Amino acid sequence: MKQLRNNVIRAGLDALYYTGAHRMLRPFLAGVGSIFMLHHVRPARDDMFQPNRHLEITPNFLREVLAHVRSLGVDIVSMDEAHRRMHERDFSRRFACFTFDDGYRDNRDHALPVMREYKAPFTVYVASDFAEGTGRLWWVALERVIAKARTIEIIRDGAAVRLEAGDTAAKQRAFAQVHDWLRTLRDDTEVQRAVSDLCARHGVDGAAIARELCMSWNELKPFAGDPLVTIGAHTISHCNLARESDINAACEMRISRERIENKLQKSARHFAYPYGDRTAAAAREFSMAREFGFSTAVTTRPGMLFAENAEHPTALPRISLNGNYQSARFLTVLTSGAATAMWNGFRRVDAA
Prior knowledge:
By secondary structure, this protein is an alpha/beta fold.
């Protein structure tokens, strides 16, 4: 199902590109700016089974994106500057922001050198438990479990379900089925329990993944001192806020900011909702972000920024730099606004 979805998206992007529709629509749909969403930046891996490939791009593709944005005459600005422009309705020049979720070490090792080449500011949203080394990146743990296993067994709706994982295609299907099932569970506690059980049965150390992949506080402090870098908050545990009680959701948002400010001695004025789609961030979460004084908060809802988005600074859309679509032609379509406009039914603002 996920491969079918990717193929449909790819076909749609190709259609917009080869018909030239993106060029004609750019003046009307590109908006006043954009916020790009990234996770990992690192050299490509050779593994046949990479179900989380969409979360990573190569340093060379990041260079291509930055060069393309600059070629459009777009200012690359910090989230602080984007907030100022939206607050003051200063839309005389189009702008773009680059944002990275989770706080991965490769943001320092591979993204930062590229951003320095282009003197491009960027924001990294840190989940504080990841920086503590205690958080659980369950989607990575699941990938590693299925990479090792030939069969997977889960308990779904009270019944044991056995999934084959003997070859790459079977592993892809098994990952998709388990991933989709996990997203239906009541809360993140249940998700973590289910994945921890799989890790225990298949010999994967899920507890070590955050320490392996994410920057610690000691690493974040000098990283945050770079003039190009802004650190934002991304909750404590990277939970789905919409599934949490009012009290727990508020604690996740408030304490994540306090931890960052205490550890790094820098203000954390910007926030990113984990998962960030309609099932993870909506009106209650947008309101909470305002109440806790965040200047901006970003979703994963796709879209360009329009002047109307200035009225909803805690419900901002982003453009995903998806590892499955690392090509120049897709990039030109994405930055035209044509693809996201069609996705959104040509609505400029989606903040409900």
